[in-house]
Amino acid sequence: MNLLLADDDPTMRLLLSKMVEQAGHTVAFAAADGEQAWESYVTSPVPMLILDWEMPKMDGLELCRRIRSSDRGDEAFILVITARDKTEDLTAVLDAGADDYMSKPVTPDNLMARLRIAERRIEVNAARRSAEEKLRKAQYLAGIGETSLALQHEINNPLAALLSNTALIEAKMLTDEEKEESLVTIAQMARRIADVVKRLRQLNNPKSVEYLGAARMIDINPGDKPPMRP
């Protein structure tokens, strides 16, 4: 796992880097202040950050808030390290959006425990996001199918009438009177199809209804009676 460290104390940066590497992880960047850390994160986001609270230019809590407000900033695990240990300090850290808090002095065992917590949280969140994405895709594909079925149900009959009358006219199989009647029918069917498209475009909160068996389709007649089954 790649991590980003931010601490204004070079000795602390070196110490944390060694501990992280011994735990089998990689320090992608070690920043000397909050601004360096922010610029690095924007350029190359990492799944975990270890931040000192008190740093020049931008402190750890402000950096934490910026990360959380950025694109995909909720995916990062943020550990804040500080010499402060009062209850209100912990509250401030959590309110800023950090996932965990560790008081100085930092020990290898303590940091290892925090890294294991971070690994598990990151794995769980990644699995959740993957499941949510699959669900969104499934819902999207289901919506396409339901919309297609609704259009087929609403448009098939007027389209068939329009095409059959057009074919009769093109084949010159109608008398002048019959041709006039067919033109009227064609216009009526075209308006019906246009109305279906208009209603579909105006749907704000589409609902699906049972069509045939287990099949469902988008109801493009809200407020009216449910579509008749074929």
Give a verbal description of the structure.
The protein is α/β, with parallel strands linked by helices and 230 residues long. It folds into two domains: 2-106, 3-Layer(aba) Sandwich (Rossmann fold); 136-218, no CATH class. Helix content is 57%, strand content 15%. It contains six helices and seven strands; from the N terminus they run βαβαβαβαβααββ. It has helices at residues 10-22, 34-43, 60-69, 87-95, 108-170, 176-201; strands at residues 2-6, 26-31, 48-52, 77-82, 100-103, 208-212, 215-218. It has a five-stranded parallel β-sheet, with helices on both faces. α2 (34-43) runs parallel beside α3 and α5 (108-170) runs antiparallel to α6. The protein starts with a strand and ends in a 12-residue tail after the last strand. Mean pLDDT is 80; it is low at 225-230.
List keywords for this structure.
2 domains, 15% strand, two-stranded antiparallel ribbon, disordered C terminus, single chain, alpha/beta, Rossmann fold, 230 residues, 6 helices
